[in-house]
C-alpha cells in the first residue's frame, strides 16, 4: 500500500499536460483553428525559403492578371506584382505586428494591473484613473489620433494598437490581483520579509498568468485586425512594403473590375482572425480547471442514471431505503467507483449515523439519494433509492424536485458556502418556503422568524435581517438547520454539519438537532467522520469504507463491541478526556484509490488480521446477531457474534 501511495505523485505532471491537450482537441473548432493557424504561421516563417517571386518586382504590362495565370498562381496586382508572394510576405508582417502589439499590451497592462491591485489605495486610484482616460475615447479614434501624432508607419501603428489595448489588460489583471492581494499566502510572504517586488513576481504573477494568457489569446485576433485597419487607411505600412491591410487598401480601387486583388488578402485576414479566435476560445476552455473533470458542459439538473436493473423492493418498509447503490465518476477513460453497492435504511424518526474516513463516499451517498451528484462526470450505475416506498432515481424530474427541500432536506458542512452572500438570511428562508408552497410573503416571514427562534438564535427578530457574513459560524449553521426545517421534512440529510465548528458550538448544535428530531419526529441521516459525535446523537450507525457499508447496527452495541477491524480502529482513534496518557492509534496506510480497488476486502491491506481468504472474492455484508451486520470473514467480537 505504501509503495502504491508514493508512486503516483511524480507521475501527476504528465497527465495534466496530456489532459489539457485532450480536452483542447475534443473541441473540434479549436483544433481546426489550431491547424489552420499552424499552416499560416509555417508559410510565413518559411517565406524566405519558398521559391517565391520578388514581392516588389513591378511589371505594368502584366497588371491585374487573373489567378491561375502562368507564373502567377494568385494573379498580379495593379503594378503587376505577384500576389502570392506579396500575400505571404504581407501575412508575415501582419502576424509579427499583431503579436508584438499584443505582447506589448499584455506586458504594460499586466504591470499596471498588478501594481494597482497589489498596492491599492492611492496608487490604484491614480493608475486606474489614467486607464479610464484612455478608455474614455472610442479606441479606433484613439489609435488614429496616436498615429496622427507619431506620423504614419508600421511601427507607429503597432504602438497605437498596443496602447489602446493596455486598458483591457490592466482592468482584467487588476481585478484578479485585488482578490489575491489579501490572501493568506501573500500575508505569509510579507511576514517572511519578502520585498513587494518579489511578492508581485513570485506570488502574484504565477496566479494571474493564466488570466494573461487567456486575455492574450482572445485579443491577438483584434490586434491583427486593428493593425490591418490602420494600414488599410494608409497609416500603417508604407509602400512598397505591404501588410495584409495595405494590400486590401490598394486592391480597393479596382474592386469592381479586378476583385481578386482585394479578395485574396481579405480572405487571409478572415482566416487568420477566425483561427486565432477559435484557438483562443479553445485555450480558455481547456485551461479552466472546472471544465477539466466535467467535460465542456454544465452539470445537469439531476444525476444521470445508467443502470441495468432496479432491485426488488426490500421487505423493510423504512422511510428511506438505499439498495446496492453504485455511483461512479466517469472522467475521460477512467471510471472512479465512488460507491460500489451501498445499502442502508433510515426508519421514520430515527437517526442513522453514516461514518467513515474522508473520501470513503459519504457525501456522494448523501448527494446520490436526491440525484444531486454533478453529471457529468457523476453517473448512478446501479441500485435503487426508495423514499416511502417509491423509487426516486427513476422517477420523473418533477417528482424528484417536489421531494427536494420539501420532504427531504439537506444541511451542509459549510453554511457560509451554501447561504447566498448577498441576501439577508430571512429572505433566503422565505425563498425556501415559497419554492414549495404558495404562501404570502408576510406569512412566510412569520414562519421564518418562528424557525429562527426554534433553532435558538438570540434576538431572532433582528437577526432575521442580517447578512450571512454578519453571523458567527454557529449561528450560520443554525440558519442552515432552520432552512432545512422550513417545509417540515420527514428526513434531513446532514453532511458533516458540525465539522467546521468548534467543540462547544458543536455540542450545542448536536443537542439542538437532537431536540428538534424528538419534537418533530424527523428522521436524520447524519454524516460524520467522528465517532464522538455519533455517540451523542445516533440510534444506529453504518460504517463506510471505500464506497461500501462494512458494518451496521445499534450505536451502543457497536461502540461497546465493534465487529469489523476497521470500526474497532476508528473507535480507537477517538481521544477521550481524563484517560491519562492513553495511546492514540492512527490507522496505518491510506484508503485505497476508488478506481483501483483490491479484490476481496478493501480494508485487507491495512488490516492486521487479514488472512489470504480476505484478498479474494466478494465479501458479503452478513447478519451478525439479530440487529447487526458486518462485511468481514473474521469479525472480532467478545460475544462471538452469537446468532450469526
Ligand atoms: P467523503 O466520505 O469524505 O464525503 P466523498 O463522498 O466526497 O467522500 O468522495 C468519495 C470519492 O468520490 C472520493 O474518492 C472522491 O475523490 C470521489 N469524488 C467525489 N466527487 C468527485 C467528482 N466530482 N469527480 C471525481 N471524483 C469525485
Ligand atoms: Mg464529505
UniProtKB/TrEMBL annotation:
**GO biological process, alphabetically ordered:** peptide transport; transmembrane transport
What is a GO molecular function of this protein?
ATP hydrolysis activity
Per the record, membrane topology reads: Peripheral membrane protein; Multi-pass membrane protein
| A GO CC term assigned to this protein in UniProt | plasma membrane
Transmembrane region(s): 29-50, 93-119, 139-164, 204-225
- PROSITE patterns (alphabetical): ABC_TM1, ABC_TRANSPORTER_1, ABC_TRANSPORTER_2
Q: Which residues form the ABC transmembrane type-1 domain?
A: 91-280
Which InterPro entries does the annotation name? Answer: AAA+_ATPase, ABC_Ni/Peptide_Import, ABC_transporter-like_ATP-bd, ABC_transporter-like_CS, MetI-like, MetI-like_sf, Oligopep_ABC_C, OppC_N
Name the family. Answer: Belongs to the binding-protein-dependent transport system permease family. Belongs to the ABC transporter superfamily.
Under which name does UniProt file this protein?
A: Peptide/nickel transport system permease protein
Which species does the entry assign this protein to?
A: Tropicimonas isoalkanivorans
Amino acid at each position: 500500500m505504501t509503495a502504491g501511495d508514493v508512486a503516483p505523485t511524480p507521475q501527476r505532471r504528465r497527465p495534466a499536460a496530456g489532459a489539457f491537450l485532450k480536452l483542447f482537441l475534443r473541441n473540434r473548432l479549436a483544433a481546426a483553428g489550431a491547424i489552420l493557424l499552424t499552416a499560416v504561421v509555417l508559410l510565413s516563417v518559411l517565406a524566405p525559403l519558398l521559391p517565391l517571386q520578388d514581392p516588389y518586382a513591378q511589371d505594368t504590362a502584366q497588371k491585374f492578371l487573373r489567378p491561375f495565370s502562368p507564373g502567377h498562381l494568385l494573379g498580379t496586382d495593379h503594378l503587376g506584382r505577384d500576389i502570392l508572394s506579396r500575400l505571404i510576405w504581407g501575412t508575415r508582417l501582419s502576424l509579427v505586428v499583431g503579436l508584438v502589439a499584443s505582447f506589448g499590451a499584455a506586458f504594460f497592462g499586466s504591470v499596471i494591473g498588478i501594481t494597482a491591485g497589489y498596492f491599492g489605495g492611492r496608487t490604484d486610484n491614480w493608475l486606474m484613473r489614467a486607464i479610464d482616460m484612455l478608455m474614455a475615447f472610442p479606441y479606433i479614434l484613439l489609435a488614429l489620433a496616436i498615429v496622427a501624432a507619431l506620423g504614419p508607419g508600421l511601427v507607429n501603428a503597432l504602438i497605437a494598437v498596443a496602447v489602446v489595448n493596455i486598458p483591457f489588460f490592466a482592468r482584467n489583471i487588476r481585478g484578479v490581483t485585488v482578490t489575491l492581494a489579501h490572501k493568506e499566502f501573500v500575508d505569509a510572504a510579507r511576514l517572511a520579509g519578502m520585498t513587494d517586488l518579489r511578492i508581485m513576481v513570485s506570488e502574484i504573477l504565477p496566479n494571474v498568468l493564466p488570466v494573461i494568457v487567456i486575455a492574450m489569446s482572445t485579443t491577438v485576433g483584434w490586434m491583427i485586425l486593428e493593425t490591418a485597419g490602420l494600414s488599410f487607411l494608409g497609416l500603417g505600412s508604407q509602400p512598397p512594403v505591404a501588410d495584409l491591410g495595405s494590400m486590401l487598401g490598394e486592391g480597393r480601387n479596382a474592386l469592381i473590375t479586378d476583385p481578386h486583388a482585394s479578395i485574396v488578402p481579405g480572405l487571409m485576414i478572415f482566416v487568420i482572425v477566425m483561427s486565432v479566435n477559435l484557438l483562443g476560445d479553445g485555450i480558455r476552455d481547456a485551461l479552466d480547471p472546472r471544465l477539466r473533470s466535467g467535460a465542456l458542459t454544465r452539470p445537469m439538473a439531476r444525476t444521470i442514471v445508467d443502470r441495468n436493473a432496479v432491485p426488488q423492493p426490500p421487505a423493510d418498509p423504512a422511510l428511506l431505503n438505499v439498495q446496492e447503490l453504485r455511483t461512479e465518476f466517469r472522467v475521460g477513460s477512467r471510471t472512479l467507483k465512488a460507491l460500489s453497492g451501498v445499502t442502508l435504511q433510515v426508519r421514520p424518526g430515527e437517526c442513522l449515523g453514516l461514518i467513515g474516513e474522508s473520501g470513503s463516499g459519504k457525501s456522494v451517498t448523501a448527494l446520490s439519494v436526491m440525484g444531486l451528484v454533478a453529471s457529468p462526470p457523476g453517473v448512478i450505475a446501479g441500485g435503487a433509492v426508495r423514499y416511502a416506498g417509491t423509487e426516486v432515481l427513476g422517477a420523473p424530474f418533477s417528482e424528484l424536485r417536489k421531494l427536494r427541500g420539501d420532504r427531504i432536506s439537506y444541511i451542509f458542512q459549510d453554511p457560509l458556502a451554501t447561504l447566498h452572500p448577498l441576501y439577508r438570511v430571512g429572505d433566503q428562508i422565505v425563498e425556501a418556503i415559497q419554492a414549495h408552497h404558495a404562501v404570502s410573503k408576510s406569512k412566510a416571514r412569520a414562519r421564518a422568524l418562528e424557525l429562527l427562534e426554534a433553532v435558538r438564535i438570540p434576538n431572532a427578530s433582528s437577526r432575521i435581517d442580517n447578512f450571512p457574513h454578519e453571523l458567527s459560524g454557529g449561528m450560520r449553521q443554525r440558519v442552515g438547520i432552520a432552512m432545512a426545517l422550513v417545509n417540515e421534512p420527514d428526513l434531513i440529510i446532514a453532511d458533516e454539519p458540525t465539522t467546521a465548528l468548534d467543540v462547544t458550538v458543536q455540542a450545542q448544535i448536536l443537542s439542538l438537532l437532537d431536540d428538534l428530531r424528538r419534537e418533530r419526529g424527523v428522521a436524520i441521516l447524519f454524516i460524520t467522520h467522528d465517532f464522538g459525535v455519533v455517540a451523542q446523537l445516533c440510534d444506529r450507525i453504518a460504517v463506510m469504507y471505500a464506497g461500501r457499508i462494512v458494518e451496521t447496527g445499534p450505536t451502543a452495541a457497536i461502540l461497546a463491541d465493534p465487529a469489523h477491524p476497521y470500526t474497532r480502529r476508528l473507535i480507537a482513534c477517538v481521544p477521550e478526556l481524563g484517560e491519562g496518557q492513553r495511546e492514540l492509534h492512527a490507522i496505518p496506510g491510506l484508503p485505497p484509490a476508488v478506481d483501483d480497488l483490491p479484490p476481496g476486502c478493501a480494508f485487507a491491506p491495512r488490516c492486521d488480521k487479514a488472512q489470504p481468504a480476505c484478498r479474494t472474492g466478494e465479501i458479503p455484508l452478513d447478519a451478525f446477531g439479530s440487529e447487526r451486520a458486518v462485511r468481514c470473514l473474521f469479525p472480532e467480537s467478545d460475544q462471538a457474534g452469537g446468532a450469526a
